[in-house]
Amino acid sequence: MKKITLLILASLMLVNCKNNSSKEKVEDIKQVETPFVWEGANLYFLLTDRFNNGDESNDVNFDRTKETGKLRGFEGGDLKGITQKIKEGYFTDLGINAIWMTPIVEQIHGGTDEGTGVTYGFHGYWAKDWTNIDPNYGTKADLHALVEAAHNKGIRVLLDAVINHTGPVTEKDPVWPNEWVRTDKQCTYDNYENTVSCTLVANLPDIRTESNDNVELPPQLVEKWKAEGRYEQEVKELDAFFERTGHPRAPRFYIMKWLTDYITEFGIDGYRCDTVKHTEPFVWEEFKTECDYAFSQYKNDNPEKVLDDNEFYLVGEVYNYGISAGKAFDFGDKKVNYFDNMFTSQINFEFKWNAKQMKTEDMFVRYNNMLQSELKGFGVLNYMSSHDDGSPFDASREKPFETGTKLLLSPGTSQVYYGDESARSLVIEGTEGDATLRSFMNWDEMDAKKDVLTHWQKLGQFRANHPAVGAGTHQMITAEPYVFYRSYAKADYKDFVVIGLDLAKGEKVIDVSKVFEDGDVLNDAYSVTEIIVKNGNAVVNSEFEIVLLEKQ
Hints:
By secondary structure, this protein is an alpha/beta fold. Among the domains are: 163-315, no CATH class; 470-551, Sandwich (Immunoglobulin-like). Helices cover 26% and strands 23% of the residues. It has 13 helices and 26 strands. The strands form eight sheets. It has an eight-stranded parallel beta barrel. Helix 11 links the parallel strand 17 (379-383) and strand 18 (413-417). Helix 1 (79-88) packs parallel to helix 3 (140-152). The chain is globular.
């Protein structure tokens, strides 16, 4: 990890935004490694199939050759392609310190056709076999190489966990046994029961996650594993899992075993969990227990590969959850707390609306107040665009600079959706539904989008270098010009930054007296300019409207 100068607080006084007389003093200088903090991480979310093609030899498997609807078939992205960009430093240059990939487990072999043309499981959410990596994405050796390359760069790796459903039924993919799945009741979403104990959509068999009945393996998996020569080994591992845990051989526990194997075998750092509110809350408590156990086992077995003492990261997709709700999601007839004993963080579906409708300072204050009180110790994952949100902040990419500024400087964890940083269009002619959000990464436009990319790189690196940005306490210094600071403290580590937005071009006089002392040498990380504090001010002369101040 990059070593930076840390600011050790001699005395920290509560500061009221209406009272500028109080002051935070920054004294002694120490060289300490910057800690990785999930609450303030800069996370990159990509569709495994749509990011980068590192191996063209694996582009077609299982005779998935039918003509598909636009952007509804496999396009060649794979694990090798992601690893290539990790090694090239693409993510490091963006200040990314965690990568979340869509599911990489083996997908259904056939395709569906429900009015949008043939669709294959390129997105990863249509599992056929949780124990195997889909060859379109690569091999287990490829995943090992990806995790190793990422960890060597200080980047954590998240996979995507689906426990709620199998893939659709096709001519090549028979339905799982009745004791495993329900197919008869489709969700109406009008209360808790009609959101949980039902199928999300037609032809998406719902795992009976509520069941504690012992069930046998699905015959199609038995046949598949025997043909692949690994049936005995898989059964042996399942026997050991159920003996250790004492769990019934119920459907959800099979899947938990298969998912946690990716922790113990590959050393992944977290899971983004799909369709959380469509599965009973106790399932996620059980999943957390198994993930924590597996992560502990991995660390014990691989002490030389341990990055830090962070716990396993679990972020939930509770569709339509927003930070304003605090810990409780309201089904109408029931409220559920998905944080305690379940998730480290929740995807924040509210953020893009807050960014559109609120003044920047009001939004920062709201997030600071929630994250420093009711959600203290947990986090939210903020995003501006995503793979299945049809109302992104800026679909036509007319405001890529504003998008980056608000996302990367907001309290909470930031989710950069692949192509946010290069203004990849989210309006693709000829597509239907969410396919418009899922075009291949626009590598061929990088030169034309250089100014946008540079903006995201500067902000992203500043966020990665300073946990205070995402995980710290927010305090406005002045409204005109708009200047604020963030402070973060944990154990012996202290971090302070001063940020100015919407400033005049040319000379800017920034009041930094609450944070820095006269004579302190600062760096404006946006213009890469050195400044010496005089009379409580930092005078920055740059062509930019943003200032990112850190102590040298």
